[in-house]
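Supplementary Methods S3. Input chains for the assembly prediction are listed below.
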Amino acid sequence: MKTDIIVDYRKCGDPRECKKCLKVCPPALFIMYPPDYKSNDPDEWRVDVAFTDLCTRCGDCVRDCPRGAIRLK
Amino acid sequence: MCEWCYRHGAGQKWYLNSRNYLRETALEVGAHDYIFELWKQFEKVYLQRIYGISMRGPGYKFNTPVVGGALKWYVNSWFKKEKPLKGRNARRAEGHPGQVVPLEDAKKILKLADPILRVNCACRKMTRGVNDPCCLAFGALAEMVPKLPRYIPERGMEPLHIDEAQAFVEEMNEAGRVNTVWFGPMPYIAALCSCQQPECAATRLRTSYGLQFLYKGEYVAKVDSSKCDGCQACASRCQFGALTFNSLMNRPFIDGWKCFGCGLCSTACPQGAIGMADRVSFPALKGVW
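Predicted structure tokens for the full assembly:
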């Protein structure tokens, strides 16, 4: 079974104040990063997921996201 | 002695060769540009896609028969790449592998490095969004940190004195973090980190995917059963699944094949019953890195 974790950026917005998915994920699969690497002190950050093959589909991220922006596929 | 010690150790362990810490070495390998590029785009190194390989779900690809093995071999070759000296691709972490070191060796490393700057751990910043100033940056990396604001600790940048730095790694060791030393890029040594699963990018690549981004240490832990009193202080220290407590014999069982030689079990033992023996003194383990 292949797992994909999809973040809806329209719902997520700026993750820097929230970071709930980053903290709750047991294997720490979420990543918060500045998409614009040209700027050194970026204003914009977003959440993405790496190493989805380590996901056990525990569903903690989906449950804890206050904006319902995370979906497991 | 490991392959890096032969090539970069000048008769000793590679990380104890002072040449690998010199500014001249940094300039020779273009460490400043390399480090800036790598740290600026640290998360992108995780998320990029090269020839269809991305770190989003690499396990699925690596498990494909034949093709998966070839991919793994190819990705592994990035970390070990030694040439060209200048201009290795930082986004593929070319020439940026690390090795586990026990506390004693970590302290020796700090005697050779200058300056020593404490910076936010890039891995923990990325995966948990937490600023945890626990990585010790040396020389060229320390020089580039002012250009990389997100890794500057909230308290500001301050170079650590050797004694302070040694006390700090001791504290990290006590907290159960594994000391690791890093090429950036080979053979220049840029950092001493305090790694822990699951946040550490390198430990994950090694333990979950078997990629040789992080080498096992120069030592293997060994129990002296005449000294062990069965207190189990070591039982929760191992991050690599090498140590379990054996109730029949009332002493820990250390699987030498899994041991990374970090020495966390050894520093936790009140009896001094766990020693760190040279990996090469075990004929079967001397090639296991």
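Chain A touches chain B at residues 2-4, 15-16, 19, 22-23, 26-34, 37, 40-41, 48-54 (CB under 8 Å). The first helix of chain A runs from residue 9 to 12.
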